[in-house]
Fold this sequence. Notes:
- This protein is mainly alpha-helical and 210 residues long.
- Helix content is 52%, strand content 9%.
- Strands 1-2 form a two-stranded parallel sheet.
Amino acid sequence: AITIETFYASSGVQSAMPILAMVRYVCSLIGTSGKKSPMDYVRAISRILSTSLDEIDNLSKETLTSVRQLLSYRNMQLYIEEPEQNLFPESQTALIFDLIKSIKQAETKTQYPSYLVMTTHSPYVLTTLNQLLAAAKALDVNRENTLKIIDEENILPRNYYSAYYIDGGKLTDLIDDEIGLIKGEYLDQVSEQTDDVMYELNNIIYADID
């Protein structure tokens, strides 16, 4: 194998690597104790002291554990703008799979909800998300066959997501209430326009062929 410095790597690697490195680092912190200021400890102790004296005398292990959790990283909140930059379609899909997997791993560690806010112009990103949403529905119908297609760690549970389209300052909900997927007309508007133009051009090109 040949080692290539990041500086000389492809633009796709240079775009995706910082995202993956950041996400994996943040995910690794979940459940661990972070650096706390004196005020953080004061607030945690204040929560205990706000209870009655009888309750303080009978502090259970569960209570102490919950206080300890207050001083540790309990969830992951990610904000990523246009992760698809410089990536081939299959690489975009792989990146989205990895991001969803990381979010679910963080939640498994602490049982607290983590979330990802992402902006995108890519129909491939939206189509990938629809695959994972559809997989959740298929999982209810036939778990065994569904997991042959997509790993469970990548599947988005129902009511686990939202998607919006912003145009001229107006926010439009993209989730189809009936099927629970992102509405098809927003997945790839360019291809639809291209198909319309190609249809008209082909009518001209083949007009004299009967």
